[in-house]
Input
Amino acid sequence: MKLRLMGVVLSFLVFFLSPLPLFGSICTSPQEATSEVTVPWRSSAEADGFIKPGEYDDALELNLTRDNWMAYLYLKHDGESLYVFLDHVSDTTYWYDNCWLSVDTFSDGGETPKEDDYLFDCTHHVYIGDGPHQIPNGQWTTLIGHGEPYQDLVNKTQPFLEGRYRGSRQSGRSANSLNPHSIFEIKVPITGWEINETDWTFGFCVAAGSPRTEENPSAKAVWPRTAYDDYTADFYAGGANPADPKIVEPQIGSFPSPNTWSTITLSDVPPEEDGGKDYWFSLVAVTLGAAIIGTAILLVRRHTRSADSQS
Output
């Protein structure tokens, strides 16, 4: 009789306590590459191309895998910088591999990039949409290290220069694969932008390419999916020549047009506030669980005493 009663009590506890997440520990699988996402406000990252254990465990994870080509995108910010980690798992052969991040600050799209559109790569270069400059054979103007003839644009994008923007490309390992593969990290400041700071939403696109070799076909990983077909794996933005800004190098391949990009929203909830919600919810859950367990124990003892007195 006691065993049967204990079984009923345990079933009761499992039924009521199993849905309650203790201390905010909820395990979720990577999201599909949806068209619009909210980037969480979490811990900082180093953006050095080396992924440390747990460095992106608190980031939003998007699955960019297509067919058998595996890739994952991680996004988070710390209130000062946006951290982007593209884990190009299936890219195990280095041949002029590249990764690009684009931002449409006004979220106004367009067939070609304008002066409110920025393009960052994993080798510390920043580009801006040509807009009215109409550079032949290209869509982007490089800014790093250049003065004339685009000094006005250099001044406008000052927050992205002087070492405050960093990008890294390494061949390394990650939690998704211990086999050496392409890893890209890009860190971009998010303060001082000419964006709608009411909701911190802006156009966004990330693309990584592995150009074709004699042994392997070209491959790529792109977010969002709407931009996939417009991206060339061996894309090069071109623009002004580092030695002479008056010389314009041609653009190679194509980068998706802003009207194919999606939008992201930066969460305005700091980690301590977000964690506070988890704390109070967990406290209530633990208190409720303790009350249920205490009640169950009292019921067992009362039943045991009643059974003993009858015998």
Confidence is low (pLDDT under 50) at residues 12-29, 132-137, 144-149. The two ends are 13 Å apart (CA to CA). The first helix runs from residue 2 to 17.
